[in-house]
Amino acid sequence: MTAQDKEISRRNFLSQALTGWISISVLPVLYGMVEYALPSKIRDRILESMHVAKEADLLVGSAKIVKFNKQAIALLKSEQGQVRALSAVCTHLGCIVQYQSDRKVFHCNCHGSEFDLEGRNISGPAPRPLQPFKVDIKEGDIIISRI
Amino acid sequence: MRDTLSQHANTFAGIPDIGTRITLFVVITFMLIVTILLVYFKMRESDDKKGI
Amino acid sequence: MIIRPSWLHFRESSRVWIEDRLRLKPLIDLLAKKLVPRHKYSFWYLFGGLALFFFIVQIVTGILLLLYYSPTPNTANESVRVIVNQVSFGWLVRSLHSWSANLMIATVILHLFSTYFMKAYRKPRELMWVSGVFLLFLVLGFGFTGYLLPWDTTAYFATQIGTEIPRSIPVLGEFIVRLLRGGEFIDEESLKRLFALHVVILPLITLAVVLFHLILNQVHGTSIPIGIRSLREPIPFFPNYLFRDAIAWIAALILLFGLCLIFPVQIGPKADPFASAPVGIKPEWYFLTLYQTLRIVPAAILGVNSETIVNVCVGIAGAFLLMTPMIDRKARMEQYSSGFTWIGVVAIFYVIIAISLAYLT
Ligand code: HEM
Ligand code: FES
Questions:
Q1: Does B8 contact C74 at a Cβ distance shorter than 8 Å?
Q2: Distance (Å, rounded) from C-alpha C331 to C-alpha C114?
Q3: Of C74, C85, C240, the CB nearest to B43
Q4: How much is the pTM?
Q5: Domain count, chain C
Q6: What is the C-alpha separation between C302 and A15, in angstroms, rounded?
Q7: Is C41 exposed, middle or buried (0-12, 13-18, 19+ CB in 10 A)?
Q8: In this structure, what DSSP letter does residue C270 have?
């Protein structure tokens, strides 16, 4: 190796070391920024069960959408007087479904998925049934809990 | 506070009627077409200078 | 002896003063050195400049809207109503921002297709094309993030759907959704995030990419489509072509004002996250192709769910778009690649059919 070659390889080494070092130092900064931007999980505090409505507010054969934590839930009172709670969030891409009492289906206006009274996905792009919730009625108060 | 803001937000019917809007459109279009003509003559002048 | 009026003296001496300090002559000479070819397709060269024009309109009107807009679920819809109903010319500024956004996206799409068919992406302009595709993604990003800001019902569900789509991307999906929404649900955090993207993050990135795109255009000049013998003399960009650009911009301004004054933009009812999505809800026209694709793909094909399939297809289409200059070997050797022209034609047909189906069904 001539003195000139040595000089070149020393310079090469230096610039590579510098580029490498800077790239490595940038990584923790990027990590910090992404961590900062990610929402903390604690803020979405979730209650296991909640009082959502009075039984008297429900009409037979129609659905009412109530708030459970931050989620929308459809309450449905059947002709036999039984109350059922299904998530009102379409399992396709998350629009709120609409109950069509004449056809007895939940219809999603976004891409046309349909669910029957049990929450089963019967047509359209929805991949899963609507999530069911447990219903307890205590002195006319409807209490919903996660299953 | 929320109520007063939303009441406040709806007090005036903001968008002017179609007659006003068309008048405005005619005025703006007139101004802009004159501008186009002036720019066009300027363009011709500079094209002529370069023999385009 | 000719007596020159004193204001002419003043004009001349100010010109000299400025030139001595800013040394603009080399820049002007450089712009004059760039030649714009003339042939039967040169009309399409106007569209890049038009996209730039609408982008400038967006910045100006966007800054004006910012003076009154307030990004929280309780105030967003109301503050837009204040702009429309009470602020002088507020309805006009809002209409300009909204119509110019649509025209910007339309001109970017036309510009993309025209450079695609003219194969202007071939060597040495590969990076102009790649930066152009990024600009397309960026303007679509503007459309998506700006849509939620009025916080009306349609916007709310459109954003719900749009931020749900990435969830089925392998590995990163969940992460992207949380990052965009700032939580599990569309709420105050999501509004603030999309607002920050719309008014700061995307504009800064777009400005940088536009600058890169324009500098490359200056460096390489404008391309001539393969096999075209330029019949007439090319035109110097400065000042001759710039006058033509200016005429196109003013014509675009007439179109823009016409749309705003005849069809001013309306505002929908405030979003209610706990009400059913309204009947007939549809996204903006530039997302209809994606929307229709989501509607026609069945829930699962061979056990793979539909969103994964659509995500993969969109990913492939995006990658193809980005990589076109590298894939099209023929164009690289200055040979006309009709295969690529056909792909473009098929893409246009798919878009037209999907949009018509979305409107008809
Ligand atoms: C904000 C968006 C955009 C702006 C402001 C913009 C601006 C421009 C301008 C002013 C020109 C020179 C004039 C012309 O040839 O049309 C140009 C050229 C070009 N643009 Fe864009 N552009 C944008 C988006 C795009 C997109 C989405 C693509 C394609 C993916 C693209 C690809 C190209 C190419 C390949 C050229 C060179 C054309 C040639 O040399 O013939 N641009 N752009
Ligand atoms: S979100 Fe319900 S069908 Fe797509």
A1: no
A2: 15
A3: C240
A4: 0.87
A5: 1
A6: 52
A7: middle
A8: B
Residues 6 or more apart from A110 whose CB is under 8 A from it? A90, A92, A93, A95, C157, C161, C277, C281
Pocket test for ligand 2, best of A86, A99, A109, A111 (most atoms within 8 A of CB): A111
Q: CB distance from C263 to chain B under 8 Å?
A: no
Whether C28 is in a domain gets the answer no
Ligand 2 atom closest to residue A124's alpha carbon, by position in its atom list: 3
Return d(Cα C217, Cα C31) in angstroms, integer.
11
Q: Which of B15, B22, B46 sits opposite C239 (nearest CB)?
A: B46
Closest residue in C to B35 (Cα–Cα):
C250
Residue C223 lies in a domain: yes
Closest ligand (CA of C101): 1
Tell me whether residue C142 is in a domain. yes
What are the structural domain ranges in chain A?
3-37, 49-146
- Atom number, ligand 1, closest to the C-alpha of residue C121: 35
Q: How far is the CA of A114 from the centre of ligand 2 (A)?
A: 9
Which residues in chain C touch residue B36, judged by CB atoms under 8 angstroms apart? 247, 250-251
User: Taking a C-beta distance cutoff of 8 angstroms, is the pair A27, C169 a contact?
Assistant: no
Nearest to C157 among A43, A110, A127 (CB): A110
Is there a contact between C240 and B46 if contact means CB atoms under 8 Å apart? yes
Q: Is residue A46 lining ligand 2, measured as CB closer than 6 Å?
A: no
Q: Is the CB of A89 under 6 A from ligand 2?
A: no
Residue A126 Cβ inside 6 Å of ligand 2? The answer reads yes
Within a domain: residue C160? yes
- CATH class for domain A49-146? mainly beta
Q: Are A133 and C303 in contact (CB under 8 A)?
A: no
What are the E-state strand segments in A33-131?
49-54, 63-68, 71-77, 83-87, 98-100, 105-107, 114-115, 121-123
Question: What distance in Å separates the CA atoms of residue C258 and residue B26, rounded to the nearest whole number?
Answer: 9
CATH of the domain at C246: 1.20.810.10
- C140: domain range? 36-360
SS3 label, residue C177: helix
Question: ipTM value of the model?
Answer: 0.85
A112: which DSSP letter? -
Structure tokens at C219: 């460096």
Neighbours of chain C (3+ CB pairs under 8 A): A, B
Cβ-Cβ contacts under 8 Å, A125 against chain C? 294-295, 297-299, 306
Could you read off the pLDDT tens digit of each residue along chain C, which spans 361 residues?
566 778 888 888 999 999 999 999 999 999 988 999 999 899 999 999 999 999 999 999 999 999 999 999 999 999 999 999 989 999 999 999 999 999 999 999 999 999 999 999 999 999 999 999 999 999 999 999 999 999 999 999 999 999 998 888 878 888 899 999 988 888 899 999 999 999 999 999 999 999 999 999 999 999 999 888 767 888 999 999 999 999 999 999 999 999 999 999 999 899 998 889 998 888 999 999 999 988 887 767 777 777 788 888 899 999 999 999 999 988 888 888 889 999 999 999 999 999 999 988 7
